[in-house]
Amino acid sequence: MRYGRLIAVLLLCLGVCLGGGWYLGVGTPKAVVPGPLGSVGEKFALETAEATDGTGYPKQGDLQTMARAIHGEARGEPYEGQVAVGAVILNRVRHASFPNSVHGVIFQPGAFTAVSDGQIWTPLATDAPAFKAARDALAGWDPTGGCIYYWNPATATSKWIWSRPVVKSIGKHYFAK
Amino acid sequence: MNNENTERTTSKLQENVADDVRRSRSVFRFFTGVLALSTALLGFLYFQQYEQNRAYQMKTENQYQRAFLDMSGHIENMELEMSKVLVSNSANTGISGLSDVTREASHAAGDLGQLPLVNLLLSRTNQFINQAGDYCYNLSQKKVNDPGSLTPTELKQLSELQRQTLFLRDELRKMGEQLNSRTITWIDLERNARKQEQTGSQSQTAWLPGLWNKVITALAGQGPESQAPPILANFQFVETELQKFSSLEYDGKFSETIKVSPRGLGTGQITQEQALQIAQSFLGKDNLEGHTLKVAGEGKAAIPAFAVSVVPNDAPEKTVINLDISKTGGHVVWMLKDRPVDGIKVSRDECAAAAKAYLDRRGMRNFEVVTAEEYQNMAVIILVPKQGDLSLYPDKIKVRVAMDDREVVGYDATAYLTFHHNRQLAKPKITREEAQKKLSPYVQVTGTKQVLLAKDNYQEVECWEFSCIRAGQDYLIYINNQNGREEKIFSVINTPAGRFIF
Description:
The complex is a heterodimer of chains A (177) and B (502). With 177 residues, chain A is mainly α.
């Protein structure tokens, strides 16, 4: 009985810790606070001939969002695969069946897991490979040759995606039209 | 004595027992108190959390509702404006009405993109809205260039579009009523859609759920697909119905009738071995010292190609260079070399010269540098070929040069291979002086050249390009050299990283 009080106090502490921790959101998805946007000193290019693509011209902020999306979706992939993800985003912008702006495509509800789980708000250093990939994609490199879908065959949760004709596989991703 | 002793012991025992009971009661009371307290605390916290969660859910729900209602409104306006254009008999009401349709369509498409419907793949619905807007935009441009009322074909196409918009409008109204009755919320739909998408979606064992679905279909006479909740089912219905309408034939950026097939590939198919040889000679010996070339796959894109990758012999899992070799003609479509570039040792102009020399060495002479952009210690140089005095903008090639040692670390000839061919070019009917007179009197001309420009719909026009300045801001203005029309205006922005055209 000597330990009764001690146990009670411990239990109380545990309860408070549990409750407090739960309240603070340990173990529950926590809203990720948007980090400060890294500054991008330069504008990216769109040369005269790019007008042939019929794109609305990507705006300055697109680079930052695209780089973060690429980082969230394809970090750890070969460099070519990162450029490819950026190219898919831009191909969607140009495609009639998708929103007509980079932000429209990236923030389309449910379109990218990196957006759904908030990874896209992780601050990204301007020298990260994803930034380079975003620049290259915006400059026009498209390793996918015009694809508008990609998925990881090992983790894909959607079943219709398998009905798309695969154009190319790069790293862990399949790319399709 | 014995008795006394026993009695004393008994009473002592009794006292002890009473003591114990008392103590254990107090302990029990203490525990109950703690339990009650922590339960109350947890309950309170849970309630707060629940309230917060509800508030966020409501916010999201309201946003979805707003996007849906906005979209319905824009579709309604689209139909209204179309119906007005159909009875207009002048270019001015026609053009303003068509511009209104375009604007409403672009808003509607934006709103549709905010709804949690991505799993439904409403590609035809999206496409319909975008194409309707694009069609009306192109039609209004046509009427600007050639004022008049609508031709019978245009009337027919537009009234067909109006009919489809009407269908979409009515369907949206029905959905709006369902949503208004509050028996279903977007939040629920979003959850449902996710669930529905994931039904039987285990990729590796896709045949098993597939088989199961077949069994269900056979037994129940309908697939699990048809069990979609309202709204989602309605959208699916709209999608399938819209697919039944034949797609519009017109010239515009979202037009399906424009199919660009590569024209600059030449003929002759190559084998994998030939692809490797081509890659090898393209990259040169320096790049391949201690590396192995291999065909990593095949691309089925607009330009079918062999994907070749270059891996170091000592680190086979790391790819250093990727390139695509077209199956037809055996051209290098693009090449990317991934290597860090430390510091800038050469200027952008020197890089531009290096890029031009790089093309020269590959027998692609007669190219001129158009723009040079700089990022992450690399310069991306855009070069275009010339035919006579004309710069062929659609046929551009991009070359990326490392600014430390002028090495070419990227190459992209997709546009060149897609568009380049021997064109029959017309002689200019309008002289430079005549063209210059068409310019705004408020600009100062600083340079001229002749160019071939591609419009949104890939239609190519020969133009005089005027570099102009107004109030310290640079512009490029294009005057058609056949009819004197002002075809396009670009704003030129000069930054330390290069010259950018918007």
